[in-house]
Amino acid sequence: MKETVLGVKVNTEDYDGLMVEVFDRIERKDKALVVAINPEKIMKAKEDPSLMALLNNAEIQIPDGIGVILASKLQKGQITARVTGVDMMLRLCEEGAKRGKPIFLYGGKPGVADKAKAKLEEMYPGIQIVGTQDGYEKDNEVVRARINAVKPDLLFVAMGSPRQENWINDNRDTLHPTIYQGVGGSFDVLAGTVKRAPEFWQKANLEWFYRLVKEPSRIGRQMALPKFLLEVMKSKKK
């Protein structure tokens, strides 16, 4: 199921529900793009029709951000839990390992995807990561050929949003995988080059605050949240 937040569709399922949908799609070979939806993206999409179309045309939109949960509560909607981009990737890898589904990692600086692969293999014994490719290969034909040669079911692309989603949309009709997710800096987190907020902050839905304390320059981006909630409240009165 989906609900709409300021014109952007968002899935209402939690991780377990999304796993069912994703792996059903793999069995049917029904291609899908997974995009992470947060208040910052929604506010940008209100001013950018191409971004709005990109988000709404994706098959699966995960509620990545406490602001989306708060907005759903204000709307008396059905979204009750965050589904973060990095945790969605990890759950897909965990479930993929159990089901023997091959995975490919594309993007990041040279060596980062390989380190992420090693970490995932440590976390999920038996996982089939059948290939990696850094994001610095300029020949797109080479990238597509490498992916198609090993026939993965899931492809994670780490280029930053919306570049990664645009690349997926431009190429997925000629690629073998069924499930595509843009994962931003997730390879760097797995590789250990970027630290994620400690588990306490994640569980308290305060990961954004932890990042703000660590990087005060993010204050401009974080100001999107109160503006976003104000827009949601205004839209309710219309």
From TrEMBL:
Enzyme class at the top of the EC tree: transferase
Entry's Gene Ontology BP terms: cell wall organization; teichoic acid biosynthetic process
NCBIfam families in the cross-refs: wecG_tagA_cpsF
Keyword Transferase: yes
Reaction(s) catalysed by this chain's protein: UDP-N-acetyl-alpha-D-mannosamine + N-acetyl-alpha-D-glucosaminyl-di-trans,octa-cis-undecaprenyl diphosphate = N-acetyl-beta-D-mannosaminyl-(1->4)-N-acetyl-alpha-D-glucosaminyl di-trans,octa-cis-undecaprenyl diphosphate + UDP + H(+)
Pathway membership: Cell wall biogenesis; teichoic acid biosynthesis
Coiled coil location: none
Keywords: Cell wall biogenesis/degradation, Glycosyltransferase, Teichoic acid biosynthesis, Transferase
Record-linked InterPro entries: TagA_TarA, WecG_TagA_CpsF
EC number: 2.4.1.187
Pfam families noted in UniProt: Glyco_tran_WecG
Annotated family: Belongs to the glycosyltransferase 26 family. TagA/TarA subfamily.
An annotated Gene Ontology molecular function: N-acetylglucosaminyldiphosphoundecaprenol N-acetyl-beta-D-mannosaminyltransferase activity
The protein, known as: N-acetylglucosaminyldiphosphoundecaprenol N-acetyl-beta-D-mannosaminyltransferase
Functional note: Catalyzes the conversion of GlcNAc-PP-undecaprenol into ManNAc-GlcNAc-PP-undecaprenol, the first committed lipid intermediate in the de novo synthesis of teichoic acid.
Organism expressing this protein natively: Caryophanon tenue
